[in-house]
Amino acid sequence: MKFGTCLLTRDDCLQHIGEHFQPVIDGLENESALNVAHAVLKDYVFVHLINYEDKFNLLIFMLQKLFSLIDQTSVPDNPDALQNQEVLLPGHLITIYLKEKLEDWLRKAKKTIQEEIAKKNNFNFLAVSDVKKVMDRNPSAQISLAVETMLRTGRLVTQTGLDLQQRAGYTVQAERLNFLRFLSFFRAVHRGASFAGLRTTSVRKLLPESWGFLCPVHTPDGEPCGLLNHMTCFCRVTSYYDSQGLVKDFFDIRKSILNILTGLGMTSSLPKLAQGGLPQVLSVLLDGRVVGSISSSEIEKVVAHLRRLKVLAATVVCFCWIFAIFSIIFFFDTNEKRINLV
């Protein structure tokens, strides 16, 4: 039953979501509200998780974290910390920019054809010549031209912003003063042009957790100091390939990490298992997914054991962040040192 705006069942919630998002999502105008709701949950809410149950558990965890922050039982996340940053690779930037330009081109092509059909000037949609004549008004060469302009000038011409903090300064000219200077451009990681004008020094600090990932001395003097850093010699950006060029089996890696955590006393977050609450237990997250919880009394032993595993070459647990102040443990599934930076 539904009383006013009260949502009491799962179908009520899906219907409510679908009705509100259907007008703003292209391509789903003729779909039912339930299908629209499923599309929203799948493509826009925690897209790294496939299972609805995992999405729900992560949402609950975020709410618990918010309440603990308001109650001052936890500290806010530090945006300058390495764990809250990621690398924007050239391939990632070109891919999302190309995707947006393709969507813009298709949207213009659709509008042009619809206008031609509405004019009723003997336009035959099944005739290649008629369609080609209309499509010539919207040349596809503008897509590649936009990408070339971005690579040449380093400036993004976008209406959405692509969820990026800046729209200029994405390319630099590699100086060939010497070989080491030239190679350093390919290991450089810049925090972003938007931070250059800030008067605070917090964005430029080298925090202890950056040790082994960012070089503590390879940063220039002056304005870019602390903003333009360089990866250490053994640091690699996470990819789908290992050091031998083979595709990683992430399922086995996650399984190995879960076995280690279970052996250390972690209780799995299976639906039918009773879960404890804060502050008796601390939640464990693996690749952005709540996988279980560990008793607060055992957390120090778990942390010490994971740190020992971190320095072993044969282990799959190479890097972890422990937040004893609040209930979360992050793991990155890889057998080499990796880095995530903005």
TrEMBL record:
RNA polymerase Rpb2 domain segment(s): 174-237
User: Family assignment?
Assistant: Belongs to the RNA polymerase beta chain family.
User: In its UniProt entry, what is this protein called?
Assistant: DNA-directed RNA polymerase
Q: Which InterPro entries match?
A: DNA-dir_RNA_pol_su2, RNA_pol_Rpb2_2_sf, RNA_pol_Rpb2_3
Molecular-function annotations in GO = DNA binding; DNA-directed RNA polymerase activity; ribonucleoside binding
Which GO CC terms are listed, alphabetically?
Answer: DNA-directed RNA polymerase complex
Q: Where are the transmembrane segments?
A: 311-332
A GO BP term here is: DNA-templated transcription
| Secretion signal, residue range per the UniProt entry | none
Matching Pfam families: RNA_pol_Rpb2_3
Q: Give the record's keywords alphabetically.
A: DNA-directed RNA polymerase, Membrane, Nucleotidyltransferase, Transcription, Transferase, Transmembrane, Transmembrane helix
Domain of life from the UniProt record: Eukaryota
EC numbers listed for it are: 2.7.7.6
